[in-house]
Description:
The chain is an alpha/beta fold. It folds into two domains: about 10-65 and about 350-450, Aspartate Aminotransferase, domain 1, CATH 3.90.1150.10; about 75-350, Aspartate Aminotransferase, domain 2 (3-Layer(aba) Sandwich), CATH 3.40.640. It contains 17 helices and 15 strands. The chain has helices spanning about 1-15, 30-35, 60-65, 70-85, 95-110, 120-140, 160-165, 170, 190-195, 210-220, 245-255, 275-280, 305-315, 335-350, 350-365, 400-410, 430-450; strands at about 40-45, 45-50, 55, 115-120, 145-150, 180-185, 225-230, 260, 285-290, 300-305, 375-380, 385-390, 415, 415-420, 420-425. It has a seven-stranded mixed sheet, sandwiched between helices. The chain has a four-stranded mixed sheet with strand order 1-2-3-13. Strands 11-12-15-14 form a four-stranded antiparallel sheet, with helices on one face. The longest helix is centred in the N-terminal third of the chain and has 18 residues, at about 120-140. Bound molecules: 4'-deoxy-4'-aminopyridoxal-5'-phosphate (PMP). The site of 4'-deoxy-4'-aminopyridoxal-5'-phosphate has 14 residues, from helix 6. 4'-deoxy-4'-aminopyridoxal-5'-phosphate binds near residues 123, 233, 265 and 290. Belongs to the class-III pyridoxal-phosphate-dependent aminotransferase family. It comes from Saliniramus fredricksonii.
Amino acid sequence: xxxxxxxxxxxxxxxxxxxxxxxxxxxxxxxxxxxxxxxxxxxxxxxxxxxxxxxxxxxxxxxxxxxxxxxxxxxxxxxxxxxxxxxxxxxxxxxxxxxxxxxxxxxxxxxxxxxxxxxxxxxxxxxxxxxxxxxxxxxxxxxxxxxxxxxxxxxxxxxxxxxxxxxxxxxxxxxxxxxxxxxxxxxxxxxxxxxxxxxxxxxxxxxxxxxxxxxxxxxxxxxxxxxxxxxxxxxxxxxxxxxxxxxxxxxxxxxxxxxxxxxxxxxxxxxxxxxxxxxxxxxxxxxxxxxxxxxxxxxxxxxxxxxxxxxxxxxxxxxxxxxxxxxxxxxxxxxxxxxxxxxxxxxxxxxxxxxxxxxxxxxxxxxxxxxxxxxxxxxxxxxxxxxxxxxxxxxxxxxxxxxxxxxxxxxxxxxxxxxxxxxxxxxxxxxxxxxxxxxxxxxxxxxxxx
Length: 450
Ligand code: PMP
């Protein structure tokens, strides 16, 4: 009996016979289930289908697996931890690894971003940061500062806080009136002024000044925080215009508004630095992270807070809970073990510096796709690239969907799309030959979906 159930489990991993039960997230389920894109194994730069066909990972999974897949040190750290301490509550109890993981993360963050609140995902991180911002003003005696400012085309996960400050219409329009009291800065993309820019576009810093308009409309005394992704990721990789983030920081400082960087994608080396905050020389009040913190191996996210935020909460009486917020799995031992092992790899292999070193070569490789049929813009930043395709006659998003399908089945390439924008962001261990393979396949794919 035990033998046959073990056999069934192995078969299920390779070839599930029920495709019905799992409702896949952010997926066209009906189409998917007629022609599924399935992976069952991964190593370093490649996924493998159940039939054993390699699929090069052009997207680090979902912008997560920056150290590449199934790295031995991470696997063994998780295994060892599971045998040592499987779970420990983070409410009123602690375990050593969570403190170590927090301080390792804090060491990578700039300035006095010294305190880490753990959760399990980017969505939870965004909602946690927004809640900390509101609670912060409360403990400071300024509880009227409640307004939250996000940005058009921003993505901060799928919690109600995140979709409220987020700026993607499909993520908002089905879900009622969302949270009250949110405003949005304009997005920073303008093809006319920015087309085919490598790195940060020259045009657009002035778009940060729209925050002054929002302040004039509502008064700074009602505004708690501004949250932006340093590079908007989910709507097709929009690098920040030169000087834009600095300007945002200046306006927030001027009006006593907290600034949150959502670094769920940009954190842990994607832009060649531990955090984009370092690349841009801008210190936000909080940084949210997830994904690559442990190379996507165990769900983990968090918020890194500056000293003044943490201290505001610690100035109350003893024996009183300071922040009524947290998750059962905050600081989960397996996630922490995976985090420490991953940060060791990032450090030992100099993966952030390495990304800086290959950024120009990557940008040139991406730009070589210019001129292919229907390509209307290409953007690059760090080890991220995006190609905008003109929509086909069947409507927006159809060409992008075809790219996902054909990319996987015909070319063995995993990528991301946002409507008709293709985004690629390979693991930071990518060598020249991998970059060549991705660009070659992408080029052929773009011709194919023309
Ligand atoms: N913020 C940003 C900037 C993201 O890119 C994402 C996920 N792509 C999230 C938040 C949400 O993360 P999760 O899917 O882990 O909830």
